[in-house]
Structures are given as C-alpha cells and as structure tokens.
Amino acid sequence: MKIAFVVLAACAAAVATPAINQIRPVSNRPGRFLSLPNPQKCANRPKQFSFRGHNYFFSGHVPELANRKVDWLDGRNICREYCMDLVSLETQEENNMIFRLIQQNDVPYIWTSGRLCDFKGCENRSDLEPKNVYGWFWSANREKMAPTNQRPNGWGYNPWSSTGHKKQRQPDNAEFDINGTSESCLSVLNNVYNDGIAWHDVACYHEKPIVCEDSEELLNYVASTNRGLRL
Ligand SMILES: [Ca+2]
Ligand SMILES: [Ca+2]
User: Fold this and answer.
1) Confidence (pLDDT) at 24
2) What spacing in Å lies between the alpha carbon of 139 and ligand 2's midpoint?
3) What is the pLDDT of residue 31?
4) Separation of CA 201 and ligand 2 centre (Å)
5) Phi and psi of 49, rounded to 5°?
6) Residue 110's closest CA among 154, 152, 65, 55?
7) Which residue has the higher pLDDT, 80 or 3?
8) 20 has pLDDT over 50
C-alpha cells in the first residue's frame, strides 16, 4: 500500500529531475539534505547478501564503515550514495533475515528506514491518526507500515517490542518525556530491554550502525542517466 507523503514525494521527484537542489531536508537540523547517488559507488556497492533481487550490506562488515555509528539521516545518506537506502522490513521473511544477521553477529542495534510521519506534510492526515498506531512508514519507498498495535498481514508475530524504557509496548515515544525529543525513527534493538531482538521507536539523533538495501528508485535513476554502467 503506497501513500503519498508530500514532503518525501517531493524529494523523490527532485532526484529524477535537474532541480536537485530543491530537495527538502527531512530533518529539523537546518542545512541537512538527502544525498544523491554516486554512480561509481552504486556500481561498486557492497553486495554482502541478497533477498528477492535486492542487495544488502551491514556497515559493520564494510572496512571503511566498520567503526562508524551515525544518526538516522547520515545513515540514509551513506546508503543513498550507493543507490541504496536504510533497510525496509516489509515482510516477515526479510525481517527474520535481518534479525538473524543481528543475532549471529551480536550487533547491539541498527537503523532501518522506518520513520514516523510527524514532519511538515503529515498534518491534516486523518488516516495517520493516532500517529503512534497509523503514522509509521518506510522512508526508503514511502510504503505505509501495518498499524503498530497489530500483527502485520502475513506475519506470525508483531515485530514491535512489547516493552521498553517505560515498560510499555513500542512505539512509546519515551524520550519525549525525558528531554522533549520525539522518537521518530525505527531501530532494531538486540535485547536492550531484555526483550530479544525487536523494533523500537528511537530518537533519530542516536548513532548506530546501519543496514543498507538496494533502492530501485535510485538504481533506476542512475541506470537511466549513465547508459552502459553495470549496476
Ligand atoms: Ca525491504
Ligand atoms: Ca521507544
């Protein structure tokens, strides 16, 4: 189910047109923008594993990124230069694959492309209310997530953790009560709250390793503007 998030749709449109400096920031920090793909990096992107035609990599297994932890937008931008984006976990099969990666490599947490639609362009959208249930989507492809309080269609479990800082189901926006920062980004945490590997809403400024997944949109864009480039 695709829905048109106005601001992000504008970003996507800008990628496909010459008006590249019209891309709007998705963060509240001024002067931060989505990065454009780098054709050479796209052609040489790390392909550590693949699933249903998409390539993926974990930053911890890429020598030049292995020691880096980044906030959510920097994470997206690292991926986007490779024609990828932060991973989107649309199916249980894909989710299980990423959970296994985290478990087998003892990774404490990663960023995904999951985002709460709580920025400019998300106002007056009754279909997204209440936001903590209906307001989450995958920013890599703007696909809406299942309601957070339900098992997604075709899944055997609800990937959101049943606990967290406030000992409440996720998403709980817990940091907002502490310092006024919204937990608008989706991280997979590895047993941080004695809850196994599970989804949590986390404030986007936290620095974490990343998993990147092929972006069809960026690959198609680079393919169409770089004839003959092998991607
Ligand atoms: Ca995906
Ligand atoms: Ca939380």
Assistant:
1) 38
2) 18
3) 66
4) 4
5) -155, 165
6) 65
7) 80
8) no
Contacts 24+ apart (CB under 8 A), 121-127: 121/5, 121/6, 121/7, 121/8, 121/10, 122/5, 122/7, 127/3
Q: Is 49 helix (H, G, I), strand (E, B) or coil?
A: strand
Would you state the structure tokens that stand for residue 223, as one six-digit string?
A: 């393919």
Element counts in the chain: helices (H) and strands (E):
7, 9
Please tell me the distance between residue 216's alpha carbon and the centre of ligand 1 in angstroms: 11
pLDDT of residue 22: 35
What is the spatial distance between Cα 165 and Cα 173, in angstroms, rounded to a whole number? Answer: 9
Q: Is the dihedral of CA 14, 18, 22, 24 positive or negative?
A: positive
Q: Which residue has the higher pLDDT, 110 or 11?
A: 110
C-alpha of residue 15 to centroid of ligand 2, in Å: 32
Question: Region 119-126: what's the mean pLDDT?
Answer: 94
